[in-house]
Amino acid sequence: MTTSTSVMRSEIAEQPEALRRTLDALLPLVPELAELGRETRQVLFIARGSSDNAAVYGSYLLQAHAGRLATLASPSIATTYGSKVDLSGVLAVAISQSGRTEEIVDTMNWAAECGARTVGITNGAGSPLTQAADLALVTQAGSELAVPATKTYTTQLAALAVLALGLGADLDSGALQAVPDAIEEAIAAPQGPIELIAERLAGVQGAVISGRGMAFSTALEAALKLKEACYLHAMGLSYADLLHGPIAVVDADTPAILVAANSGPTLPGTVALAERVSSAGAPVFGIGGGQALADACDLSVPAPDLPEWAAPISLIVPAQLLTETLARRLGYNPDAPRGLGKVTQTS
């Protein structure tokens, strides 16, 4: 087992400061976002990979709190099929960590040609995405060297929260600005539960990661991290979809990791799912969910007490730490998963 500190672990620890810089840079742009909001009615997110998981958070956030229909684009409609779609009244939000993924830039340009206004969210200042968008939200994560996205992902979530504020969401910007301190405390806390869960996961081939609503994005991103850095057959699902059939795969050899904010309308269902999984004899681990979820799980990792809408920015951090810990336990290098690079081009 590798014991040296990974670059991924160092970059996880950099997230509080990266989030502070990002919020300082982006909150002043709320008036410009509001202007774009007055010209549009619904939002189309354009993204791939971790950025696509961030877009899922943005979609829930805007629909639940800004009263706007928000959907995820299918980039192949633009890049492969070359179809034309009426996007008048649409705000197309393209998300790319580097801002250099051609498919995402091309799809955003296609959206503009179809009548949409455009926003680019990226960590790449001066990238093609920033140059093509009507308005660029440039996150301030700094250089990210490890292939698994950590600080670029959480700063994307922060940018999406700022987008929601600009589009009229009745949210407390003060709660958003409290997130970096909350994450800093969580990273500094003893990591015993994460070590124990990693020990339990080291002997399995697959796992189900589930959350609902705002936390669904966290389940998807956690599953992606475990797949790309630990080579675990991890399935990220909404718990509503899990109950429609795939729950059959959860057994003594396929644990469930359940993710939830410490409060909110999806918490009772998450607790009920934990109880059901446990009664079936399967291991169940929790991230967040307060004492209610902890009591229903074999092991759990506490999460900061943030409002449900802001919680996903912090909920992913324990999953990042778990991924890094498990990868090293398995003897893998979490910084450089096999077959992956920092920028993925899709033809």
Automatic annotation (TrEMBL):
PROSITE patterns attached to this UniProt entry: SIS (PS51464)
Gene Ontology annotations of biological process type: carbohydrate derivative metabolic process
Signal peptide positions on this chain: none
Cross-referenced InterPro entries: GlmS/AgaS_SIS, GlmS/FrlB_SIS, SIS_dom, SIS_dom_sf
Single GO MF annotation: glutamine-fructose-6-phosphate transaminase (isomerizing) activity
EC nos: 2.6.1.16
NAD keyword on record: no
This protein's UniProt keywords: Aminotransferase, Repeat, Transferase
Highest rank taxon of the organism: Bacteria
Domain SIS: 33-173, 197-337
Pfam families: SIS
UniProt name for this protein: Glucosamine--fructose-6-phosphate aminotransferase (Isomerizing)
